[in-house]
Amino acid sequence: MPIQSRLHRPFGALTTLTNGRHSWNSDVDATLGSDDLAPDPHDLLDSALAACTSLTLELYIRRRKLAVTDLRVDVSHTESKTEDGKVRYVLQRSLHIEGDITPEDRAKLLEIANKCPIHRVLEGEISVATALAD
Predict the structure, then answer these.
(1) Could you report the per-residue pLDDT of 7-35, keeping only the tens digit for each?
(2) Which terminus, N or C, of the chain has the lesser number of Cβ atoms within 10 Å?
(3) How far apart are CA 58 and CA 55, in angstroms?
(4) What end-to-end distance do the CA atoms of the chain give, in Å?
(5) For 50-53, which contacts have Cβ atoms below 8 Å and span 24 or more sequence positions?
(6) Are the beta carbons of 122 and 49 closer than 8 angstroms?
(7) Are residues 112 and 86 in contact, defined by beta-carbon separation less than 8 angstroms?
(8) Which long-range contacts (CB under 8 A, 24 or more apart) does 33-36 make?
(9) What pairs with residue 70 in β-bridges?
(10) Number of Cβ atoms within 10 Å of the Cβ of 126
(11) Can you tell me the distance from the alpha carbon of 26 to that of 121, in angstroms, rounded to the nearest whole number?
(12) Does residue 15 contact residue 5 with C-beta atoms inside 8 Å?
């Protein structure tokens, strides 16, 4: 099922999203006329990279039985415009890995983080096709 978004206008811009199995919310900042009841769409995009990185690393850590005791992924972004007016969105990701692992294991975890599926999508070519539904 595709992701479906439903706006709840009585609550400012609060929006419920669902994939048919799970639901979550998004909103905009209060400065944009809402109540800031949930993460904004930029937070959701950034969190997709953070979640995918954490999960990809966890699967690798389990397979290799690495002695990792804690894993945290921080993602932030900066946004600017290019000379031709396009948006330049730069994601900064920081891996915090604790445990009794070698420098080689740490380097391999960095390599694996750069192979997470969302990372690959974001570095690939993305296009959006939009149509009005009947």
Answers:
(1) 998 878 999 999 999 999 999 988 888 88
(2) C
(3) 5
(4) 19
(5) 50/74, 50/75, 50/93, 51/118, 52/116, 52/117, 52/118, 52/119, 53/93, 53/95, 53/113, 53/116, 53/118, 53/119
(6) yes
(7) no
(8) 35/11
(9) 98
(10) 7
(11) 22
(12) yes
Encoded tokens for 43: 């937070």
User: DSSP readout, 12-67?
Assistant: TT-EEEE-SS-EEEE---GGGTS---S--HHHHHHHHHHHHHHHHHHHHHHHHT--
Q: Strand pairing partners for 99?
A: 68
Contact indicator for 71, 97 with CB cutoff of 8 Å: yes
- What gap in Å lies between CA 51 and CA 30, rounded to an integer? 26
What is the token pair recorded at 42?
Answer: 């930029």
Q: Give the pLDDT confidence of 42-100 residue by residue, as tens digits.
A: 999 999 999 999 999 999 999 999 999 999 999 999 999 999 999 999 999 999 999 99
Q: Which of 51, 37, 41 is nearest to 119 (CA)?
A: 51
pLDDT value at residue 113: 98
The DSSP code for 11 is G
